[in-house]
Description:
By secondary structure, the chain is an alpha+beta fold. About 45% of the residues lie in helices and about 20% in strands. Strands 5, 13, 14, 15 and 16 form a five-stranded antiparallel sheet that branches. The chain has a four-stranded antiparallel sheet with strand order 18-3-22-21. α4 packs across α5 (about 75-95) and α10 (about 180-195) packs across α24. It is globular and about 100 Å long. The two termini are about 50 Å apart.
Amino acid sequence: MAILGEIRSRPWLLMGIIALAMLAFVVNPDSIEKLFGAKPGVYGEVNGEEITKEEYDDQLFILQQQAQQQGQPDTGLEEQAWQMLVQSKLIKQQFEKMGLTLTEDMFWNQLQFDPMFAQNQENFDAKGNFKVQEIKKQIADLQSSGNVEMYNNWLRARRAIEYRMMARQVFANVSTGITASKKEAEEMMRQRDQVANIDFVKIDYNNFAQKNPVKVTTQDLADYIKKHPILFKRDASRNLGLVYFPAAASPQDEAATQAEINKLFNQGTDVSEGKENFLNTTNDSMFIALHSDMPFNPQYFSADQLPATIKDKVASAAVGTTFGPYKEQNFYVVSKLLDKKPSDSTLSRHILITYKGNQAGANETRSKEEAKKLADSIGAVVKANPAKFTEFLKYSSDPGSAAQGGSVGWTTPATPFVPEFLSFLANNGKGATGVVETQFGYHIINIEDKKSGAMTYKVANLVKAIKPSDKTENEVYTKATRFIQQVQGKSFNDFSNLAKKANYQFLNPKEIGRFQGQLPGLGTDKDQEIIAWAFNKKREKGDTEIFTVDGTGDRVIAYLNGIQDAGTADPEAVRDQIEPIVRNKKLAKIISDKINASKATSLDQIAKQFGTSKLAGQVNMLSPQVAGAMEPRVAGAAFGVAKGKLSMPVEGMTGVYVLVKNSETVNKQPGDIKQVTEAIASQNSQQFGQALLKSLQANAKIKDYRIELYNQAAQQ
C-alpha cells in the first residue's frame, strides 16, 4: 500500500543502503551560498523562468535515490537532472499558455494514473478502486509526525508527479486534432503492397574507396555542419587527450603478497609472536579484523555466490576445512568453512520503536528506557495474541514497512539485514514473537511463515590485496612525470604519437560535457576532477596536467586539445560521426561522374566498368531494402523510372546504384483501411508529442549558468 513505501529513502533494516552516504554535491554548498549571499543560487533560466539550486538539488536527489535503489552507477546524473528540469519547465510553460490548470482535486483524481501509483496494486482495493483517502491520511500523518526528511521526500515526489500530469494534459490536448485521412491510409497500403522487380548494379563505397581513396578535410566537415545546423547544435564541450599510467603490481609485488598470506595462514603472525595463525585461530572474525584487507562477513551465501575457486568444493567439505591460498582477481585469499545450513526463507513483520540519540531516532523525544518499556509491553501483547500486531503499527518509526502492515517480506540468511534481526529469524520458528535491539532501536518481530531452501555456507575469508609497492608506484610516477615533461608545449599530434610510440594507454574523448560525470574508457575517481579542470576558464588549448587516482597510485595525464563553446559543434570533434557520410558523398560524385561520362546503355556495361556483377531483386517503398541495406532512394527510383529504361545513378546509403525496372506486382498484405487509418493516427500522435517537446527545447531561450558558477565557486 503505499506511498510511503514508494518514497521512503531509508529502510531501517537495510545495512547496505544506510551505510551508503549520499553523493556530495559537485561543490561545497557553503561556497555557492557565499557567492549569492542570502539569495539561493540560480543555476539557469528557461525562457526567463529561473532554475534554482533547490530545484536542481531536489531533482538530483531523486535520481541518486533511484540509482542507489537499482544498484546503478551514480555518475553523470547532474546533466540528466538538468535536462529533466529544462523539459519540466517547458511543459509547465506550455501548460499555462494553453490556459490549462491543475487544481488540488484534479491532482488527487489523476494520481491513480501516475506510474508511481498505478503500478502498485496495493494502492487499489479488491474492486479496483483507488485508495485515495488512505493515501491522503498517510501523508497527513507523515507531516504531523515531524519527520521532516520523509515529508520532504513526498514533496519532491509530488512536484515530479505534477509535471507528469501537466505533460499528459498538454500532449492530450495537442494530439486531439491529429488524425489520418482515408487517402493517407490508401497511399500507405499501396506503398506496402506494391513491389518493383528490378535488375541493378551496385558500386559499393567501401570497395571503390580501396582503389580510389578520398580525403575528408576539416572544411568538408564544416560545410556539412553548416547545411545541418540543428543536428549539430551543441552545449559547451571539451576535447581531451588522456594517457593512463596504471600502477599495476609487479611480479615481485605479487610474490610478496603471496608470501604474506602464507605466513598469516600457517606460520603465525607478528602480533602473536608466531603462535597463532588463520589455520589454528579460535577467533576467526577477530583474526580477519586484524589481518585481512576485507572485513569479516557473517552472512550465509549460496554456493554460486562464493568465489569460483571454492564454490564446487564446499558442499562435500567438513566445517573447519580451509581452501587456499588461491588467487581471485587482484587478491590472494584463504577461505575457511565455518558453518553450513539450509537457506530457510522467512516471512516476517516488525514494529520499530526508536529513542532519542539512536541511528533512526533523529526526531524522537523518548528515552532509551522508555522505548525499551514500550517495546516490551507491545511484544508481550503480540506474543499472546499475534492478531493484535497491526493495532500497534502507529508506534512504528519505519513508515515504509508500517504502510505494508509491518511486513519486511521474505528474507533469507543472505538478505542484507542487520545481524541481530537475521539471528532472531534464524533461531525461531513460525509464529514466534520477540523484542530485538539493533542500532535503529527496538524491533518487535513476528515470524509469519517459513520455507526450507537450498544449502548456504558461512565462510571466513582472509584476504590480502595484491597492491603495487612504494617502489612500483614511484616508478609509475617517474614514468608519468617524464612523459608530461616531454609533451610540455607540444602539439596534440606530438602528444598522441609519443603515447602510442611508448605503448601507453591513450584515449581521445572528443565531446566531453561539463556534467557528464565520467570519461569514456577511463572510469576513475578522478574523472570529474579532470572534467572540472578542463572547463576551468583559465584553461587554454595545449594545457596539460597530471592526476593521481586515489587508492591505486595510477596516474592520468590530461591534454586539453579543444575548447568548444556552446553553439555549433567543432568539425573535428564530430569527425567520427560525420566523416563516413561526407566521404560517401564524395565517392558518390566520383562514381556518378564516371558512369555518366561512360555513356553506358546497359547494366552489363556498368558492371564491367566497375568490376562488379548485375543483380536482381524486389523492393517496395514502405520497406526499401535492397541487397541487405535500407535504400529509400533506390526504392524511389525503382517506382519513378519507366519500365525497361536504365535509371540515372542513384546515390544510396551504401553505394551508387543503377537499375532497370522489369515489372511491378501487387502483394496484398493483411489489414483493412480502418485498421491502417487508426495505426497511422496513433503513430502520428506519438511522434507529434515527441516532436513538440523537441521543438519547444530547440526554440527556447535556455541559459545555463552552472559552468560559470562552479568556476567562481572554485576560486572561493
